[in-house]
């Protein structure tokens, strides 16, 4: 983690290291298997493609994410209040100021991306700007800056590489594009086709669940770190309630268009809470609110009761 005033989290560091090690291992195993089952002349090409995708994912992560969200960088003159909030939070956290972006979409959300704290960007959507109060927006920005400070956004970006390569190979295997099934290799070609298809599916499945386990924990960590930085956990709690509730008013086509960024959003672009915990990118809203309620009590600002989905409730 970069040296900042955000609360550190050993659990997050252990999880990021473990996920990167495991995904790196299965990525290498995938490349090795491909080199064995495919014609020898493909070996250097496979290696170069694998390394190239990993490097590209890391180096161009901010550019790719911004383009995917149709976002643009904004100057202090264009978004003075947004910049002032981030300036204050960065000074409070003693961290470099990231670039600031705005995505012109109605989905109320925010995300952070970038290969390092110095090359990061914090982006909010136009849908969230008119929904939250200034204090709630500051809480959301503190959450996103925590992702940058802990470098978990970088790890998530790189961690997705194995799944991307496996998905590409699975599609290629399905169509036989990589194996020359129309050639004269007969049973050898069929074996290579099946071997790569099975291995790719396994790698994709392992990558899918590992990145989601990390994604859920890092969201709780960012909630916690942001709340301790601002010392106002209730603001983040009400912001999360508004964002989650606001999703119900967004057309399904807009939610689907943004769903590829769910792992990076502060809240998933879905309606309701019907996702399975095993496959979801985020912890449940109730779990996040309960954590924030405990932090508020710890900071000496007790609520009238636990923070619930519908606001404070009697014990």
Question: Top keywords for this entry?
Answer:
315 residues, alpha+beta, Zincin-like, 2 domains, four-stranded mixed sheet, two-stranded antiparallel sheet, 11 helices, 6 strands, 61% helix, disordered C terminus
Topology readout:
Blueprint lengths: L9 H28 L5 H17 L1 H8 L2 E3 L6 H14 L5 E5 L6 E5 L5 E6 H4 L4 H17 L1 H24 L11 H44 L2 H14 L5 H7 L26 H14 L8 E2 L2 E2 L3
Parallel strand pairs: 2-4
Antiparallel strand pairs: 1-2, 3-4, 5-6
Helix pairs in contact: 1-2, 1-7, 1-8, 2-7, 4-6, 6-8, 6-9, 7-8, 8-9, 8-11, 9-11
Kindly report the spatial arrangement of strands forming the biggest sheet: 1-2-4-3
Question: What string gives the helices and strands in order?
Answer: HHHEHEEEHHHHHHHEE
Query: Which structural class fits the helix and strand makeup?
Result: alpha+beta
Shape: elongated
CATH superfamily of the largest domain: Metalloproteases ("zincins"), catalytic domain
Radius of gyration: 21 Å
In what range is the share of β-strand residues?
A: 5-15%
CATH class identity of the largest domain: Alpha Beta
- The name of the CATH architecture of the largest domain is 2-Layer Sandwich
CATH topology of the largest domain: Zincin-like
Report the total helices. Answer: 11
Q: Which bin fits the share of residues in helices?
A: 55-70%
How many beta-strand segments? 6
Poorly predicted regions are 309-315
Euclidean distance between termini CA atoms = 38 Å
């Amino acid at each position: 983690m970069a040296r900042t005033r955000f609360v550190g989290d050993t659990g997050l560091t252990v999880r990021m290291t473990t996920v990167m090690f495991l995904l790196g291992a299965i990525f290498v195993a995938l490349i090795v298997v491909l080199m064995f089952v495919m014609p020898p002349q493909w070996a250097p090409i496979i290696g170069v493609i694998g390394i190239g995708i990993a490097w590209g994912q890391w180096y161009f992560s901010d550019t790719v994410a911004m383009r995917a969200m149709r976002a643009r960088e904004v100057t202090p003159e264009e978004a003075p209040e947004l910049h002032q909030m981030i300036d204050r939070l960065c000074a409070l956290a003693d961290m470099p100021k990231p670039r600031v972006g705005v995505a012109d979409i109605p989905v109320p959300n925010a995300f952070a991306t970038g290969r390092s704290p110095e090359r990061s960007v914090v982006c909010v959507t136009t849908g969230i700007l008119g929904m939250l109060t200034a204090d709630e927006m500051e809480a959301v920005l503190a959450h996103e800056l925590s992702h940058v400070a802990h470098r978990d956004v970088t790890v998530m970006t790189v961690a997705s590489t194995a799944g991307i390569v496996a998905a590409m190979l699975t599609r290629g295997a399905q169509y036989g594009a990589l194996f020359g099934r129309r050639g004269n290799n007969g049973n050898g070609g069929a074996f290579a086709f099946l071997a790569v298809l099975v291995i790719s599916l396994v790698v994709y499945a392992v990558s899918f669940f590992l990145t989601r386990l990390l994604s859920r924990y890092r969201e709780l960590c960012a909630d916690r770190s942001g709340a301790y930085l601002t010392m106002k956990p209730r603001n983040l709690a009400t912001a999360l309630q508004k964002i989650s509730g606001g999703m119900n008013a967004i057309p399904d086509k807009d939610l689907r268009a943004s769903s590829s960024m769910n792992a990076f959003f502060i809240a998933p672009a879905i309606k309701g809470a019907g996702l399975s915990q095993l496959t979801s990118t985020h912890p449940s809203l109730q779990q996040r609110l309960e954590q924030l309620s405990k932090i508020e009590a710890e900071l000496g600002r007790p609520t009238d009761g636990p923070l619930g989905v519908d606001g404070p409730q009697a014990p």
